[in-house]
């Protein structure tokens, strides 16, 4: 399901207030099969800058349009929609598959794993389309992997912008494990009266 911008964005969730850009851990974003190492970082930018022309963009290697993009967040997020602006002349990605909270996925993993959600993409050169998520499945997202299997017939896949809309929980990823550990009961803190020399009286 996609959303077109035929409304006032300030009154809808497509405004920059809903952008998750500032919650992306950009230094740890990676891509497999990118022609220029590190170029994937250039496609993550503020919503208002999504159409700004730049020589920097993500492109797959010649003759192999498949791309796999790993995006970690600095805090858990809830993702409502995803936007992708591709390249011209058949180089835009034609399909998107996503995986959540899985690290180290490679192309063989992506091909064999069931995606959380898949979309058939349109050539969104003007950045007017957003793809709605199955929101109940996109809660507590610590990282997302985007699999672009093919383009619209081009020898490469080009991506100029990737954006996420939603909400951040403000729970930083590096403290989640500590919290989980702390809420697990410690047996030594919960000794029974029998164990501590006490007893129970019968009624």
TrEMBL record:
Top-level taxon: Eukaryota
Classification via PROSITE patterns: PITH (PS51532)
GO cellular component: cytoplasm
Pfam families (alphabetical): PITH (PF06201)
InterPro entries referenced in this protein's UniProt entry, alphabetically: Galactose-bd-like_sf, PITH1-like, PITH_dom, PITH_dom_sf
Stretches assigned to the PITH domain: 9-184
Family as reported in the entry's similarity comment: Belongs to the PITHD1 family.
This protein's name: PITH domain-containing protein
Source organism (scientific name): Microthlaspi erraticum
Lineage: Eukaryota, Viridiplantae, Streptophyta, Embryophyta, Tracheophyta
């Amino acid at each position: 399901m996609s959303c077109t911008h035929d409304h006032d964005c300030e009154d809808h969730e497509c405004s920059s207030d809903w952008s998750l850009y500032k919650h992306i851990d950009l230094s740890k974003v990676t891509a497999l099969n990118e022609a220029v190492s590190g170029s994937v970082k250039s496609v993550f930018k503020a919503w208002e800058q999504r159409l700004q022309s730049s020589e920097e963009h993500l492109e797959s290697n010649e003759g192999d349009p498949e791309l796999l993009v790993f995006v970690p967040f600095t805090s858990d997020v809830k993702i409502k929609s995803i936007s992708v602006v591709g390249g011209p002349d058949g180089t835009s990605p034609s399909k998107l598959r996503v995986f959540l909270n899985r690290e180290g996925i490679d192309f063989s993993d992506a091909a064999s794993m069931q995606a959380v959600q898949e979309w058939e993409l349109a050539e969104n050169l003007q950045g007017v389309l957003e793809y709605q998520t199955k929101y109940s499945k996109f809660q507590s997202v610590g990282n997302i992997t985007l699999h672009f299997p093919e383009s619209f017939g081009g020898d490469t896949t080009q991506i100029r912008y990737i954006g996420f809309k939603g909400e951040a929980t403000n729970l930083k990823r590096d403290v989640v494990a500590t919290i989980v550990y702390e809420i697990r009961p410690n047996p030594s803190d919960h000794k029974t009266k029998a164990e501590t020399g006490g007893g129970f009286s019968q009624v």
